[in-house]
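Reference record
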Amino acid sequence: MSQVIKEIIDGVGTVLLGKEQHVKLALACLFAKGHLLIEDLPGMGKTTLAQCLARALGLSYERVQFTSDLLPADILGAAIFNREASRFEFQPGPIFTQVLLADEVNRSTPKTQSALLEAMEERQVTIEGETRPLPQPFFVIATQNPLSQAGTYPLPESQLDRFLMRISLGYPSAQTERQLYQGVVPRERLQQLEPIISIEQLSEIQQHVKQIKASEQLLDYLQRIVDFTRFHESFSYGLSPRGALGLLQAAKAWALIHDREYVLPEDLQMVVPSVVGHRVSGVQNQTKNEVTSVGDTVAEFILKNVNVIESN
């Protein structure tokens, strides 16, 4: 299992250059049966990452460009009248796929954003009173432009909590960018990328994540992290139960990617920035002059203040 995971990481890495850590996080998100939110500037490789994962894993792929005039039916599908049959027939929308790229999800209205909620949580959609299951696996990769850019609608907390992880790819290193200047074309390499595992193998990996062991001491450490976000004065609100369980599942998936059958504190620490950052609200602590914000800064603040071993 570890060998095939390494092949996936290496395969995606031939296209998305210099982003191995981000690829591992995306895979951990998928293996833990979560959904991924990528927040970054345009042109950073968000779409490329989604396409690479779909091709390497042999999964069906659809892309929806979210705009202000997009309607829920454009995503979910709708009943269309068939003149020849004299009846309405359901035409499935792009959400009926295994990997859905919701591109620039925060450019659509809240009504359209909410169309994803049931699908992401229940792996099914209800249309005109009928519940329809989605393909398995079902993995949403949503991209989001920084809120400072024009024409964006902030995602509500209820929808942010549906995403197991939020990551940012960031600028490439100088060495990686030089390869692009010298003629490496990621799109051409993407077309050459072949499926590395089957859907059955992917399902086996997802099931195996549940079997990764977490000791009582590790769970104590997890609980201290969760309690810190809920009760420390620097946070307006903390991790929900869904977020706490997601943190544990992500740590288990990270351990599996690194060929371990048990979770280490380091596994938990590695996924804290991507799992916790978008779920907690940080405020400025006037007395200590500490400022907490989403992402890495929040993670650093939490991990600095929560001991791995409880102090007496």
Summary: Residues 241-257 form the longest helix (17 residues).
